[in-house]
Amino acid sequence: MAEKNVEFKSPEERFKELIAIREKEKEVQRKLQASRERAQSIIEEGRRKAQEMRRQAEELARLEIERLRQQILAEAEAEAQKIIEQGQARARDIEQKATQKQAELILKLKEELLARGA
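and the corresponding structure tokens:
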């Protein structure tokens, strides 16, 4: 039979080992809790950063939409002004032609009236 090298410890030694083991367990639990808290803090910071980035992106999008709206509005106003100016020019041409035609008709009418009266 093989001889076992078993070391017998006194109850005080076993008690000290047990206390050391429990202290080590407490230390591991404290480290684990600290790691969890750090991880939670990192997660919360990540969420805050993501929320801030989302807010900034929304603000940029809002500003870009407003800029595009203003640009489109300015282009529409410029186009409307162009159409108005073209319409006014056309109206002046029509008025000028009508005035000219009216003057021609008045002249012709005068000539006819003078021809009848002479």
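(Above: one complete record from the training split.) Helices lie at 11-117.
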